[in-house]
Amino acid sequence: MKHLLKTSCLILSLLALSLNTQVLAQDLTHPRDMEIPKSKFKRPDPAKYQVSLKNGLVAYVAKEDQVPLVSFSAFIKAGKIDGLKEGAAEALTEAFLAGPKNISSTAFKAALKRMTAKYSVKLHNKWIEINLNVPTEDLEEAFKLFSATVISPNITEANIKAAARKATKDIKVDKNGVIIDGSSSVAVSKFHDIILKGNILGKKLLSSDFEDLSTKDVESFHTTYVVAGNMTIAVSGDINEKGIRKKLKAQFSSLINKTSPNRRNVPKVKRQKKQYHYFPADKLQTWVVIGHPLAPVAFKDETAFEVMNYILAGGHFWTRMFIETRDKYGLTNDASGYIEDQWDGSGSYSFHSSSRHDVTKQLYDNIMSVIYEIQKESVSDEELMIAHNALADGVYEMKFKDGNTTARSFAIEKLRYGNHKHSKSYPVRVRSVTKKDVLRVANEYMHPDAFQVIIVGEYINLQ
Amino acid sequence: MRHFIIKSLMTLTFIVTNVIAQDYEYNLPIKEHIFENGLKLLVVERPGDNRVAAKIWTDMGALNEISGEYGAAHFLEHLMFKGTLTLGAKDWKTEKPLINEINATEKAMIAELNRARNDIRERGVFHDYQHEKTTPEITRLQKHIDDLERKVEELTIEGTTMKWYQGFGGTRLTASTEQEYMHFDIDLPANRVDIFLRIEADRMTNTIFRKFDAERMILVEQRISSLNRLNTRYLEAMEGLVGRTSNVYIPEGYMTDFKNYTRQYERYLYDTYFIPNNTTLIFVGGVTMDEMIPKVEKYFGGLERKPEPTRYYGQEPLPSGEKRLIYRDNKLSPRVELRYQIPGVGHPDKPHFDVIKEVMRNRLQKNLNDKEIGGSVNVSTMVVHTNNYGLPSSIHFAAIYEDTEKLDASEKTMLAEIKLLSEKNILDEELKFAQKTLRTQWYRAASDPNRLNFHIGHFEVMDSWKTLKPYLEARDKTTVEDVRRLVKQYFIPDNRTIGKVIPRGEGQ
Predict the structure, then answer these.
(1) Which ipTM value was assigned to this complex?
(2) Which residue range is the domain that position A292 belongs to?
C-alpha cells in the first residue's frame, strides 16, 4: 500500500511537472483561414433617437453615460457659398462664436471657460456646425447658452471685422516670393485656389466684401437659413433623455417654422488641362498635391468610388499607393487620396504626399503609375474583399460606435439627405460593388489628363 | 449596544455612499489577470459596446537606447510592420537563407566599421571631416546586402499585417514608440478580437526585418518633417539644456543616428524586450475578462517567460545651477521660457504639478495682460512628445511675442508670478477651477475607449495601472499648502533653465 502510494505520488509529480513545462505551440493559422465570426453590428434605429418638434426641427438624443459629459451640436444647411452678400456666412460664424444676444461676448467666453467647455463653430462650403461639450453639472446653463446662441446670436460689427481678418489672411511669402512656412496645408490650399478659380466654391473674399457688409445683412442670412426645417440638432452624453426631449421642445420651439430656402446655384467645376504649378518654399521637404475637381458622383456609383479609393489610396496603411511609395521604397511617410465632398455638387479628388527633395520625382512617378494601373486592370478578389469589409465593418461601424457618434451621424445624415435610407443601405451597397464597378468608376471619375499638380518646396521638373 | 450597532451601520453607509460617489467620478473598473509566463492582461468591460480598443504594450523605448543609436526603438516599431515568417512571406524556405546571409554580411560590415573606425569617424563639429568616407570593404559588403535585399523583396508581400486588420473591420491602426513604451493599436468589432491576438503574438515573436534600408529612410522623412516645424530645433536645444543624462530629453534620433542602425542592434532590442513578462495586453470595450483569458492563453500561452530585461537606471544629477539658452532665429517668434525639473509619475508630488500647471496657465496670461506685457502664454509639461514620465521631466512657462521689446519685462513678471505662488495664497476658486479643468480633460479622454486604453497602458509602463486612479484623485485633493510647498521646493534658481528666442543679429 505504502509502495503504491509512493508510486502514485511519483506519477502525479511527473504529470504535474510535464503540465508545468508543457509549452503550447503558437497558433499561426493564417488570418485567411481563421474562423472569424461576422460582426454583430446592426445600425441603431434612428426613430429611437429622433425628436420632431412642431415647427419642423428634427433632433437626435442619445444617452452615453460612461463619463459625466454632455455634447450639443447644431448642423445648419448654409455655408460659404450661400447668401446674397459675400462674407455673411463668415460673419455669422464669428457671431456664433461670440454667443447669444442677451449677454456680452466677454461674459459668454467667461461662461464657457467656467464650465471648462469645448466650443467650436465650423464653416464648410455648404453647411455650418456648432459643437459644445461640457461637464454634466453644467448641462442646464450650457443648454440655455447653446440654444440662445443658435436662435439669437450676437451679431455685431466686431463679428464682421473678425471675419474679415480671418478670411483675407494670405500665405506669407518673403521678398523673393518664397513661402515662409511651407506645409501640406499650404499645398492643399494652393490646389483649391487653382481648381476652383472662377467658381463660387473657390471664392476669395476681399476686404471690400466686408466693407460692404452690414449687421443687417448678417441678420438676414441668419433669419433665412437658421430655420427649423433647415437644420438638425444632436444632444448626447450623460443625460436624462426624457428631460432633454422636453428641453428641446421648450428651447427650440421659437425657431421659425420654415423649410430649406433655395440655395445658390453652384456651377459645375470645370476640369482643366493637366498643368504643373510650382511654389517655392524654403523647407527640407517638398509637398505634392495631385488632383482635379470631382464631378458629382452618382448615387449608384458612390460606394464603388469609395471602394476604388480605398484600394488605391484610402488614407490607411494598406493601399496600392502607400505600398508603392512608402513600404517598398521609403520615399515618403505618407501618400493618400482624399475625396472632398461638397454636398450635392462638385467636389475634388486629390492625392497628397511629401518627400525629401531628391526623391520627389520618383515619388510622383510611383503615384502616377498606381493611378494608371487601377484604370487599366481590375483589382484582385482579395483587394475587393478587404475593401468591402474595411468599409462596411470598420469605417461604417465607427460612425455609430457610441451614443455621441450615433446622434451626430444621424443629425448630419438627416440634414444632408432628408432621411436615413443612405446609412441603412450602405453596407449592402458597399458589399455589392464588383471589380467591374471599380474599373468603371476609376475611369469615369478620375482623369489624369486633367490633374493639376501642385509642388510646394524645391523646384523639380515632374514632366 | 444595539444603538451603537445602528450608529456604526449608519456611519458605514455614509462612508460607502461617499466612496461610491468618488468611484463614479473616476470610474475605472480595470480587471487584471497575469498568465504563468508573466504576460499581463487588463480588461475594462463595457457591456453593450460592439467594438473593442485593443493595444499591446511593451515596456521599452528610447530610454533603452545607447548614444549613437537614438531612435532605434522607434525604428524597431517600423520594422515590426514588415511581416513575420507567416505574414508577408511568399516562400519562407527560400527567403530564410537570404535573411541569414544578410545578417552575416552585416556582421562582417560591423566588424569592418569597428576596425576602420579611426579612418571613417566624423571629426568635425559641422560634420565636415572624415579621413575616409568609407572603405572598399564596407562598399563591397553594402552592395552585397543591397543585392540580397532585392532578392528578398521578390519574395515579400508588403503591408500584409495591416491588410488583415483592415479586412476584418479594424480601424485606428497605428503604433507609437516614445521613451518608455511601444504599443500597437487597433479598434475592432469585439467578436473579432482573435485576429488581434493572432497577429500580435506573431509580431512579438516572429518578426522578420525586411526592407531595412528603405524603412530607414522613412525615419529620415519623419525627422525632416519634424525639423520643418519652426520651433523644433529650439525645443530640442531647451530640452537638451534642462536634462543632463536622461534620454527623456533627447529626440527620437538625430540625422546622424539613422545611418548607424543595424539589424544586430535592433534584434538585440527585439529579443530582449519583446517577451511575455514585459508585455501588457489591454482591452477596453465589448469584451469580458472571462472570455479573454482563454483566448489570450491560446495565442500567447505558448510563449516562454524570459529573463527580466535590462532596465534604465539613469538618474539626473542634483540641480546645481541656473542655465540660460539664447536661441537666434529670424522665423521663429520671439519668446521667453522658464523650465523647472519636476518629479515623475509615481512620486507623490507629481499630481499636484498638473494642478499648478492649470493655475499658472490662467494666472500668467491674466497678469501679463494686466501689466500690458501681453504675449501668448503656454504652460506645459510636454518633453519631446510626452506629458508624463515615470522619471523626472520638466514644466514650462512660456510667453510668445511678435517682437523682442517685451521679453525682459515678461521674464521678470513670470519669475515674480511664480514667486508669488509661494508667498501669497492662491485663491480657493483658482484651485477649484484648475481641478475642474483637469477632471473635464480626463472625462474627455476616458469617454473614448482608445484614449482610455492609452492612459491605462501609459501608467502601467510609468508606474502601475493601479496608481492611475489615485493619481487622478490626488489632483482633486491638492491644497494651497501643497502648491506653496512645491513652488518653494522646486521652482528655485538652481533648478531653472531660461530660454529666449531672439532674431539673428541681436545680442551678438
Answers:
(1) 0.92
(2) 275-457
